[in-house]
Design brief:
By secondary structure, the chain is an alpha+beta fold. The chain has a single domain, classed as Alpha-Beta Plaits. Helix content is 29%, strand content 25%. The protein is built from four helices and eight strands. The strands form two sheets. Strands 1, 2, 3, 4, 5 and 8 form a six-stranded antiparallel sheet that branches. Strand 6 and strand 7 form a beta hairpin. Helix 3 runs antiparallel to helix 4. The chain is globular and about 40 Å long. Bound molecules: adenosine-5'-triphosphate and 2-amino-6-hydroxymethyl-7,8-dihydro-3H-pteridin-4-one. The site of adenosine-5'-triphosphate (ATP) has 12 residues, from strand 5 and strand 7.
Length: 174
């Protein structure tokens, strides 16, 4: 069965824009994944552990035949292929791919929690997500409500649009 999923992708080490390009390219190359939308790129101050470089963040919509665990494995494979080294939680990373939503499904296991447990408190997730979320009106309203409840300035999450789109991306059309 085809499911629409949303990912959050972040990077704050090295050639950040290139890292995003590479991640999108690897997603697109997968035969069971069709990337249907990519948000603008946002540059954001680090949240959580704040003593680290600014991030670039995007959200991506995709359609896939993979189940949620297979999609997670693919995300982790892409992280590894791009040379991510795990140092410490919320620390700097070449690339980070988190599953935000997988259809309407909910998971709460050791390996996988969906919706992503921290997505509704992270402006760097919600702002790009709102931009591309067209599939589900109820979920979009949930995202917008969470976003309005956040005080972006107070959070120290300076968001600004960097680039219109990930270069060379051609959305998959049904
Ligand atoms: N929705 C999800 N998307 C991606 N990973 C998840 C999800 N739910 C649980 N996980 C688990 O989280 C583990 C740790 O992920 P990671 O090291 O990327 O955390 P983090 O990005 O530092 O922090 P955060 O989870 O706050 O974004 C992964 O091994 C994975 O099994
Ligand atoms: N701005 C920003 N801050 C973060 C990010 C991120 O992608 N962007 N990812 C984190 C770990 O998940 C922790 N903090």
């Amino acid at each position: 069965m085809m499911t629409t999923a949303y990912l959050s992708i972040g990077t704050n080490i090295g050639e950040r824009e290139q890292n995003l390009q590479d991640a999108v390219k690897l997603l697109t190359a997968h035969e069971a994944i069709s990337v249907t939308a990519i948000s603008s790129i946002y540059e954001t101050a680090a949240v959580g552990y704040t003593d680290q470089a600014d991030f670039l963040n995007i959200a991506v919509a995709l359609e896939t035949e993979l189940d949620a665990y297979e999609l997670l494995a693919e995300c982790q494979k892409i992280e590894n292929d791009l040379g991510r080294v795990r140092e410490f939680r919320w620390g700097p990373r070449i690339i980070d791919l988190d599953i935000l939503l997988y259809g309407q499904q909910q998971y709460e296991t050791e390996k996988l929690i969906i919706p992503h447990p921290r997505m509704y408190e992270r402006a760097f997730v919600l702002v790009p997500l709102e931009e591309i979320m067209t599939q589900n009106y109820d979920m979009l309203v949930g995202v917008q409500k969470a976003l309005h409840a956040l005080d972006i300035e107070k959070e120290g999450v300076n968001l600004w649009k960097k680039i219109n789109t990930v270069a060379e991306f051609v959305p998959f059309e049904n």
